[in-house]
Amino acid sequence: MRNRSLVLVAALLALGSPLAAQTTHPDFTGTWVLDATKTLTDGPLPAPSGATQIVVQHGDSMTVDQKSSSEQGEMAMKKVWKVDGQAWANAMTYQGTAMSLSSVLRWNGAELVIRTTMDFSGTPVEQNESWTLAADGKTMTVTTTTNVNGAYYASVTMVFTRK
């Protein structure tokens, strides 16, 4: 009888573990406007003076339309991703140079983690982003760390407000 009870408990634990491991991930869908007064930078990259992100999230699929402005000028791009641990290709132009981006997205609890690699005129660049959503769902924080040739280059933390 005792062995049956242990087997039953083990079976219930095994069945319950996947359910307990499931985490509700935040939905970043919305139009997000940068609060430039809360931007923190470290390194030579200029802080954006303005930025907007329009995010559409359906399950593990995301589309992000980004527009930003800084002393280096205006930039706009569209990214299409899935949060599935696979590499997703996008393209952008930076300072007149066309680049292919390869991004891998995953969840770390309620934090969206994005690792993007690219080549800028023969120089390898890696960006690691962390997206978090405040409990009230009205504030999104995006922290980006940039490495060039494998060494730390710069970081920026931007706080966005849902419009």
Describe what you observe in this structure.
With 163 residues, the chain is mainly beta. Helices cover 12% and strands 61% of the residues. Strands 1, 2, 3, 4, 5, 6, 7, 8, 9, 10 and 11 form an eleven-stranded antiparallel β-sheet that branches. Strand 6 (87-94) and strand 7 form a beta hairpin. The longest helix is centred in the first third of the chain and has 20 residues, at 2-21. The chain is globular. The protein starts with a helix and ends with a strand. Residues 3-22 have low confidence and may be disordered.
Mean pLDDT score, rounded? 87
Structural class, from helix and strand content?
mainly beta
Head-to-tail CA distance between termini: 61 Å
Task: Assess the beta-strand content as a share of residues.
Answer: over 45%
